[in-house]
Amino acid sequence: MSDAATKASLPLRLFAFASAAACFALGLIALYSSGIGLIDPKLHRALGFGLALFVAVAVSQKRRHGTTPLQLVFDVALIVAGLWSIWSFHFVQTEMETALYDVTNRDAWPALAGLAVFLELCRRLWGWGLFGVGTFGVVYLLFGQDLPGVMAHSGFSLKEVAEALWYNTNKGVFGSITNIVLSTVFIFIIFGVLLEGTGAGYTLLKFAFLATRRTRGGPAHAAILASSMFGTMSGSTVANIVGTGTFTIPMIKKRGFTPTFAAGIEATASSGGQIMPPIMGAAALVMADLTGVGYLNIIVAALFPALFYYFSLFSAVTVEARRQGIEVQQMTVDDQITRTDLINSVLFIGPILVVIGSLLAGLSTSAAGFYAVATLLVLSVINPEVRNDPARIWHSFLKGAESGATLLIAIAAIGILVGSLDSTGLGLKLANVIASVRGESLFSALLVAMAGALILGMGMPTLPAYLIIILVMGPAIQELGVSMLTAHMFVFYYGVASSLTPPVAIAAYAAAPIAQANPLMTAFMSFRLGMAKFIIPFIFAFYPTILIIEEFSLVPFIWIVTRTCFCIWLFSSALSGFDRRKLTVPEIVIRFATAFMCLATDPMIHLPAILVGLALIAFDVYAGRSKAVNSETSQ
Questions:
Q1: Helix H segments across 99-185?
Q2: DSSP E strand stretches across 153-276
Q3: Relative orientation angle of helices 281-291 and 484-497, to the nearest 10 degrees
Q4: DSSP assignment, residue 174?
C-alpha cells in the first residue's frame, strides 16, 4: 500500500473504530435501560443520537466505497455540528428543569444545524423519500403560512420552529417516538440480529423444510414457513430476505419454479414476518405504546390476520405447483434433521418462550426483550459453531446496535414530521378533507386511506412507513367509528404492504438479484402473490371480532374465519388462473366476484356467493378428474 493510500485510509479506520465503540456503547445502554435501571430521559435521548451520529457517518462512508479529503472534512463538520446541537438540547432541557427558561433566538441556530445534520444523514442512509418527509416538516413550518386553503397556518418564527422540532420531549426529533425506540425497540433489534448470529436462523430453516417435505411446493412452502418465523424475530423485510432467501430461492428454482416466482414468494413471505406474532418487529412495539393497548394484546389481535396472509401464500404456491405439474419429492440427505439441529432448536424456542412468559408474568416489553437476549447469550454456547468462533456473538451484537442506530436516524425525520403536523394541526385538516371526499361510506373511506397509505409508505422501511401513515390517515379512519387499535392495525398492514407495491417494491428488489430475476417482474409477481395483504385489513375493519380482543363472539368469529379462508382460496386460484386445471376467463371473473361477495356483511349477498363458490370448486374437481381419465384412456 502506498503512503498516500495509507494516509487516506487512516481517517476511515478511525471512523470505523469510533463507530464500533459507539455501537458497543449503544448496545450496553439498551441492555441497561431495558433490564437493569432507568436513565434520565433527556440524557438517554441525547446519548442515543450522539452515538448514532458516529455510526451513521461511518455507515455512509462504507456505502460510498471510497472517500475524498473534501468528503472527510464534510463528515467531520457534520459530527461537530451534530454534537453541538445535541449538547444544546441537553443544556436547554436541564435549564427548563431547574429554572423558568424560554428558548431564545440564540438557541435556534444549533437546533437548525441539528435538523440539517440529521436530514443529511437520513438522505445518505434511507434515501430521498424520508429526507423529503423531514424536509417538508421543516419547510412547512417556516413557510406554510403563505400556502392556500387548508394547508395554510398562522406562521412560526425560527425560535418557535426550534422549540417545536428540537427542544421538545413530546414531539420533534427527541419526542416520544424516539423514547419508544430507545427504551423498547432497540433491545429487540439486537435480539433479532443475535438470533441470526447464533445460528438459530439456519436451524429454523431446516425445521421448515422438514415440516413441508410432503407438500407440492416443498422449498417454496418452507420459505413461507421459515420467513414467517425468522421475520417475526428480525423485524426487517430485507434482512429476512437475505437471511432465508439465500438458502430457499435456489432450492425453489431447483424444484422447478421460475426465478421470478422464487424471488416473488420469498419477498412476500419475508415482508409478512413483521405481521406474524409473537414479536412482529419494531412497528408492533411502537404500536403498543402509541395505542396504550399493551404488547400482549397486540400479539393476540395480530394472530388471525397473519395466519390468513400466510394461508394465502400457501394457497398460491399450491396452485402454482399444480399449474406447473410439480409433484412431491423425497427429502435429500441435506434436508435431514441432525442431532445438532435438535440441540440448536433451543436457540430460538428458548428465547421466544422467555418473551411470552415475561409478558404473561406482567413484565414490561423492554424487560421481556432483555431477558430474551440474556437467555440467548447463555444458550448460544450449545452451538458448536459459536464455541469455535465466539467472535460471531460480538459481531452480531455490534451489527444489531448498528441497525438500531441507523433506525434512529430515520426516526429523526419522522419526529420532524410529527412535530410539524402536531404544531400546525395539518393532520386533522387532512382528516376533514378525506371525510368530505369519502362521504358517509366506511368502505370508500378505507379505500381512500389504503391508497394514501400505499403512496405515503412506498419505498420506506415498515416502521417509518407505519408512523407516517398513522399520523396522516389515522384520525380520518378513527372518525368513522373504527377503534384506535383497528385503525392502527389497518395502516400497519399497508405500511408492510407498501414494500411489495410496484414500482418501488423494495422487498422484490432485494430478492430479485438472489434469484437472478428481473426486478420489475419480481415486483409484479410479489404484488400478485401478496394480494391478500391488501384485502385482510378491510376484513378486520368490518369484522373486528377477528382481532379477538375487540367485540369477540365465538359463532361470528368462526363464521368469518371460514368465509375468509374460502375467499382466499377462490382469490388465489383466480389470480393464478388455475385450480385442478386451467380456468377459463369466465371462471376467473366469477371467482373474483364470488370471493369479494363472500365477505359482504349482508347475508343476502354472502350466502348465495358461498353456494356459487362451492359449485365452482365442485365443477373444477369434476372437470379435473374427467380430464385425468381422458388422458389415461388416450395413453
A1: 105-126, 128-143, 158-165, 176-180
A2: none
A3: 160
A4: T
Q: What distance in Å separates the CA atoms of residue 470 and residue 473, rounded to the nearest whole number?
A: 5
pLDDT category at 635 given cuts 50, 70, 90 is low
Please list, in sequence order, all residues whose beta carbon lies within 8 angstroms of the beta carbon of residue 9, skipping any fewer than 6 positions away. 1
At residue 257, does pLDDT exceed 50? yes
Quick one: what percent of the chain has pLDDT higher than 90?
29
SS3 call for 580: coil
Nearest-angstrom CA–CA distance, 474 and 199: 39
For the chain, the residue count is: 635
Distance CA(183)–CA(189), nearest Å, equals: 12
- Give the pLDDT band of residue 52 (cuts 50, 70, 90): very high
Handedness of CA 360, 362, 365, 370 (dihedral sign): negative
Please tell me the distance from the alpha carbon of residue 474 to that of residue 488, in angstroms, as a whole number.
7
Sign of the CA dihedral running 395, 397, 398, 399: positive
Instruction: Tell me what percent of the residues of the chain surpass a pLDDT of 70.
Output: 92
* Whether residue 136 has pLDDT greater than 80: yes
Inter-axis angle of helices 105-126 and 69-98, to 10 degrees? 130
Yes or no: say if 368 and 354 are a contact pair by the CB < 8 Å rule: yes
Backbone angles phi and psi of 598, in degrees to 5: -65, -25
**The Cα angle at residue 585 between residues 584 and 590, in degrees rounded to 5:** 100
Q: What is the residue-averaged pLDDT of the chain?
A: 84
Give the tens place of pLDDT for each residue, 471-498. 777 777 787 778 889 989 998 888 888 7
Q: What is the C-alpha separation between 320 and 197, in angstroms, rounded?
A: 34
State which H helix or E strand residue 190 sits in: helix 186-197
Handedness of CA 131, 137, 143, 145 (dihedral sign): positive
Q: Are 363 and 180 in contact (CB under 8 A)?
A: no
Q: What type of residue sits at position 551?
A: E
Grid cell at residue 277: 406474532
CA distances from 463 to 150, 414, 458 (A): 28, 10, 12
With beta carbons less than 8 A apart as the criterion, state whether 201 and 230 touch.
yes
- Residues 6 or more apart from 163 whose CB is under 8 A from it? 103
Cβ–Cβ < 8 Å for 54, 79: yes
Task: Note whether 404 and 189 are within 8 A (CB).
Answer: yes
Cα distance between residue 222 and residue 468, in whole Å? 33
SS3 for 582? strand
Render pLDDT for 372-421 as a digit per residue (tens, 0 to 9). 899 999 998 888 888 888 899 999 999 989 988 998 998 898 889 888 88
Spatial separation of the C-alpha atoms in residues 362 and 428, rounded to whole Å: 36
Amino acid letter for position 572:
S
- Asked if 268 and 294 touch (Cβ cutoff 8 Å), the reply is no
Residue 5 pLDDT level (bands cut at 50, 70, 90): very low
